[in-house]
Structures are given as C-alpha cells and as structure tokens.
Write a structure and sequence with these properties.
alpha+beta; 5-stranded antiparallel β-sheet; elongated; binds adenosine-5'-triphosphate; binds magnesium ion
Length: about 425
Amino acid sequence: MQGTTFEMSADWSSTANAGPNHTEIQVPSGQSRFSDFETGRSGLRSTPPGRADEALRASEERFRALVEHSHDAVTLLKADGTVLYDSPAVTRVLGYTPTERIGCKVFDFVHPEERAAMARGFADFAMRAGAVASSEGRFVHKDGSTRWIEGVRSNLLHEAAIGAVVVNYRDVTERKRAEEERVKLEDQLRQAVKMESVGRLAGGIAHDFNNMLGVILGHTEIALSRITATEPLHVHLQQIQKAAQRSAELTRQLLAFARKQAIAPSVVNLNEAIVGTLRMLQRLIGEHIRLRWHPAANLWPVRVDRSQIDQILANLCLNARDAIAHAGQVVIETANVTLDHEVHGDHAGFARGEFVRLAVSDDGSGMEKETLAHIFEPFFTTKGIGEGTGLGLATVYGAVKQNNGFIDVLSEPGAGTTFRIFLPRHLAGDRDR
Ligand SMILES: Nc1ncnc2c1ncn2[C@@H]1O[C@H](COP(=O)(O)OP(=O)(O)OP(=O)(O)O)[C@@H](O)[C@H]1O
Ligand SMILES: [Mg+2]
C-alpha cells in the first residue's frame, strides 16, 4: 500500500473546534500531506466561508507543524496494527521514510522476541476505547540494529476525527544501555562484596580449624607410633587420622579461596607450565575425553605461583569432565590480550591493561543462569552428596585473585562452558604488585 491510500482520510481531517480533551491530528490524503480538510464543520458555520477556510487552513497548518516537527515520532495505527501514518521523525527513530511503512503491520518492525507479546497486548488495547498506555520495547531499525523505543499510545479508534490508535514514541536506546551497564556494575560490585565477606569468614574459620586439626593429627600420629598394628585401638586411630587428613584438605581449599595460601610466585611462561601438566590432566579426565592444547606464540610472561596454576587447571578440567556425559573434548588455550574498557566493560576494576589469558573450554552440559550466579561460592555444588564439595571453583577464584588476575565464564545450557582467566603481563622490572 502506498502513502496515498488513506481510505479513512475524510474522517481524520479534523477541524479546529474540538473540546479541550480532544486530540486533533490532521491526516493527509493524496500526495499533499495534510493539505486536504473538510470545511464547514459545525463550530465554524457562523464564520463567513472565506474566513472559515482561512481559519481552518491556519489551524490545519498549526497541527501539521505540531506533528511533523514533533521531536517524538507519531504513528497512527488501525485496530489490527496496520500503519496508517508515520510522521517524518520516524526516519530519525527507525530509519524509514514516512511512506515506507504505510499499509504494513507495525508488529513486523518489532523485535522478534517481543513480537507475539506486543501483538497480543495491542489487540487487547485496541478493544478498549479511550485507553491510554505507555510502553517500552525493542524495535528493529531499517539498518537492522535493535532500538529501545519508549512510547505512549492512545486508543482514538472511536474518535470520528481520528479513527486510529495514536502512538507517540522516541528512541531510548542510549538510556537503556546506560541503565543496563549500571545494573551490571552494581551486580558485580554486590558479587565482589559477597565473595569478599564469605572469603573473610571462611578464611577465619579455616585458619583456626586448621590449627586444631594440626593438634589432632599430631597427637594421632604420636598415639599410632606408640601402639602396634595388632592392637584393637590401632584401627580406630587410623580412622581418626584419615578423617583429619580429609578435613585438612578441605580447610586447605578454603584457605585457598580466602587467598590465605602461602604462595611462592615466580616469573613463569604459562605455556611451559601447562605443557608440564598435560599428561596428568589427560589422566585426570579419562580416555573418553580428548584434551586439546592451543598455546599462543610469544606468550608474555606472568608472575604466579606454579602450584596454583596446577590447582586451577586440575579443578577446571575435573569440572569439564563431570560436565561431559559421554565423549567430548576439553580445550586449553593461551593468548596475549590487551583489554580496554570499551571491550571489557564487564570487568569493573580491571578495565585496562595487558593480560595473558588462559581459557579452558568444554563441550559439556553448560550451565543455567541461576547456577552461573553461584559457582564461585564455596560449598556451592550441583553434584550429589559425596560427589562434589563445591570448593573447586572457590579455590580457583581465590588462586586467580591472589595472583592479581580475574576470571570470567561463558556458558549456556547445552552449549558447553569456557572459563577465562586473565593474569597480568609481567614486565621486566615489575616487582610484586
Ligand atoms: N565446566 C562446567 N560445566 C558445567 N557446570 C559446571 C562446570 N564447572 C562448574 N560447574 C558447576 O559449578 C558447580 C560448582 O563447581 P565447583 O568446582 O566449585 O564444585 P564441584 O565440582 O561441584 O565440587 P568440587 O569441585 O568441590 O568437587 C558444579 O557443581 C557445577 O554445577
Ligand atoms: Mg569441581
């Protein structure tokens, strides 16, 4: 349909004599937009014909100017969502000329994810004469980009002079982006504060607990050395020792999470450190999973504790193994990366700089959003009792932080998981950071 097919144009060419609650919009017919109007309407009857014409023309001009120069775009829709009129501002907001969308369904310009809901909402709205509603949603610009649009619509289908749903709207994409960014930063901050306080708590308990375990283990050892293996008490003491050793392992992980591990960092080429662990990792994950290794050439050095790199890799590979039901693959990759705020706005506090990135990916189950939100918390596990303690990633998190790095994760259900660890590049002359 072209811009000239305004079957209802006679109804829309309203006059200037409406009451205060009456929205008047002049709608074009034919080529000359807004130039046709009815004359001799009731309120103007008493005016001599020539002056009535003039008054009407002036009024028509005024309303045309209002709509056409309005900063907001104005669109008129039929009850079924067909576009009857687009004001010139539509070009600025959605990229279409004022005639391009005439006759099309407005829902075709809505983001596919919102299309069905918007059509349902509109159908309901169109039934309610006189209704006014504000809304916000995503539309697709002519250039293919997604735009957030905020608007107010009025159901004036029953108004003889208009006979349409009138929508006033504007592009709020920038504001929306800024809001999303702010929410994301707040979330990150909240998460960081939570991890910090959980870390302090866990670290405090683990520290004291570890000391007491030392006493238990020491005394058990002395007692065991004083009796022979045939004595009935021997087996009980052995059980105590085993349990205490297992507890000591747990507290060691907690201390790692709380960044209280005693570490011995040195300048390391990560590629070399990883190559040394590949055989061990392959054994850990089993034959059914292929381990692939993609080292970057000329990798920058980092300053880390090598044993923590082993710890990180072992934990990530074990998790990958658990996430792969049958056969699959785990890829370990290194790269030099330079981060700037624009690209990595996700990492508040680590906005810029040169990093060595270590990525461990698997093609396993992937994770739901709710799981992702908690994975680094100590004791968070989705595994059964006896299968996981939920300390693996907490340990990884602590180790990465202790080495002044940061970690992120990309994962989707059914699409596998990638953990990425960023460690600061070590430059000659750098000392402890
Ligand atoms: N690669 C992965 N793919 C899918 N889910 C994962 C992956 N890595 C971690 N997870 C999820 O994160 C949870 C926490 O992991 P974490 O390593 O901290 O604990 P765990 O593996 O459950 O137990 P633990 O490592 O102490 O034996 C897991 O239970 C699992 O749900
Ligand atoms: Mg684990």
